[in-house]
Structure formats: structure tokens, C-alpha cells
Amino acid sequence: MTIIDILESRRTISYEFYPPRTAEGIPAVFRSIMRLEQYHPDFISVTYGAGGTTRAFTEEIAIRAQREADCTIMAHITCAGQSQPEIDGVLGRLQNAGIENLIALRGDPPAGEADFVPAKDGFAHATDLMKHITANFNFCLAGACYPEGHVSSPDLRTDMEHTRWKVEAGARFLVTQLFYDNDDFYAFMDRAHGAGIDVPIVAGVLPVLSSSQIRRFTQLCGASIPPKLEAILERFADDDDGMREAGIDYATRQVQDLWEQGVRGIHFYALNRSYSISKILDNLRLPGHEGLVAAERG
Ligand code: FAD
Prior knowledge:
With 298 residues, this protein is of the alpha/beta class. It contains eleven helices and eight strands. The protein has helices at residues 3-9, 26-37, 54-68, 84-96, 126-136, 156-168, 182-194, 211-221, 227-235, 240-260, 275-284; strands spanning 12-17, 43-46, 72-78, 101-105, 140-145, 173-176, 201-205, 265-269. It has an eight-stranded parallel beta barrel with strand order 1-2-3-4-5-6-7-8, surrounded by six helices.
């Protein structure tokens, strides 16, 4: 089923997983997928690694999850380090395997490098990739968007202009980067409507697991840490168990507010873990997404 059809019929809960570094890690990913399956996600997505073998695992996990978990799949693909023929190979295999949904991204520069350099015969921007996919393949396409602006965008107005180009290039819906202050998301929604963007926008939520991890992630993606979260990070700086429970509480409140304000969907960055998300969904008991079993740590 296409995700745009789902989004047009109901508000969604979805999860994102990433491919492990080695094949030995795949069973653990599937254990998480199957645990969270019990909360009836509307779709799950599998990210596209920065390079090497994990890319093959993206295909493997997406195709196998579509077969084994009773769920709609969205595969991620990026322009990074791949020529158009190589990208076409991946897209052809996904399409032949029946994957209908794809989020098309640019990808990040390698660690330590500031600028994104397109591969020879590759694509420089997500919109270039999207136009190519729209013209040559048959996927329900999504694009990324940034409530606080993309780290390398010069200003919010330019960032929104580029977001609008994604919709013009074929994105049927958008998924946001993580954010911790819902007011950033609401201000982004107002700017998006003002720019004429009328596709559904799904909010990306990352429950905090550890203080150091969230500082690293937010620094990399340019998301800010609001004072109320900063206080929690300081309090549990050396207590990962305490931080995880506080992260569940913070994300529960964040999602509850987003849901009450009418968000079209919540996309949980699961980081291949199921415990925090199952606890958050147990707390919220959103219609259609109540759990069947007590949450296990994982
Ligand atoms: P783009 O839309 O190309 O934007 C990148 C920058 O270029 C922005 O500053 C934008 O304003 C600017 N820009 C865009 N178009 C133009 C143009 N025509 N001319 C000039 N400037 C332009 N990364 C992975 O490696 N794998 C994943 O699976 C993955 N999944 C993600 C899922 C989501 C929901 C999100 C939010 C991010 C994901 N990322 C992933 C990270 C993503 O690759 C980075 O955020 C990347 O830096 C930008 O990707 P983009 O698709 O938004 O790029």
C-alpha cells in the first residue's frame, strides 16, 4: 500500500530502523521490528547507510520486513557516493521486490568534511534524485524537511524554498528531522503552509536514550536543545537508566501535544530499539496502536 493512501485515510504511527554494520546484527533488528509490530505501525522505514555493506542490508531488511512483518515499508535512498546507474540498480531491485514507498535524500558528507560532493555521474541534491525517480520509476516518494532549517541552509526562507522544490519534484509527503521543542515544529508548519506546501508532514521524534548521544545527534543535525530538556540531560548525564525513563516521559508529552494539535503522523526514530517506543505507546494508548504485550527492555 502507498503511504500517501494511508496518510489520506488516517493519522499514522511509524518507526525507523537502520541497517546494522554486519550481517550478525540483522536478527536483533528483526526482534525490534517484531516487538514494535505489536503496536500496529502504519509503516516502518529502513535507512540507507553512508556506504559499504550496510546498503545491501537496507534492501535485505526492507524486502524481508515487507514479507515477514505485516506492515507497509518505506526504503530510504541517498545520492551519496553512488552514480546514477548504481542508484538505478537499487531502485530496480526494490521496485521488483514490491516496495512501493521511498524517501529520497541527498545524504551527508563523510564525517569531518563540510561539503557534500556528488559522486561522478551522481546527483547533487535530493530534488535531482527525486526528479529522476519520478520520471523513471513508480514509487510513492517522500522527502526530508527540517523544522529548524537544514544545517547548511543559509536561512529559513531559503530552506523552505528548497523544501517546496521537493514537493514539486514529486514528494507526496514529508518527514521532519528530529526536534525537541514542538513550537519549532508548529512555526515550521505555518511557514510551510505560507509557502504553499500542502502535502502531509509527518513529525520525526527521537526519544532520548542517553545524554551524550543526544548532544552528538543534535549537534550533527543542527537541532536545538530547549532549556527544559537541557535540565534533564544535566540531571541524568551519568545515569543512562534514569535518562532513558526521563526520555520516555519527555517524548510521551511531546507526542501527546503533537497529537492533540492534529499532527498527521509521528515517525519514531527507533534506533533499532523497541523499549522506549513501546513504553511511550503504552503511555499514550492511541487508538489502533495499543500494545498487545507488556514492553520488554530491548
Ligand atoms: P537536500 O534537499 O539536497 O538539501 C541539502 C542542503 O542543500 C540543504 O541545505 C538544502 O537547503 C540545500 N539545497 C537543496 N536543494 C538545493 C538546490 N537545488 N540548490 C542549492 N541548495 C539546495 N541520511 C542518510 O545517509 N541515510 C538515510 O537513510 C537518511 N534518512 C533521513 C531521513 C529523514 C526523515 C531525515 C530528516 C534525514 C535523513 N538523512 C539520512 C539525513 C540527510 O541525508 C541529511 O539531512 C542531508 O544533509 C540532507 O538531505 P536532504 O535530502 O534534505 O538534502
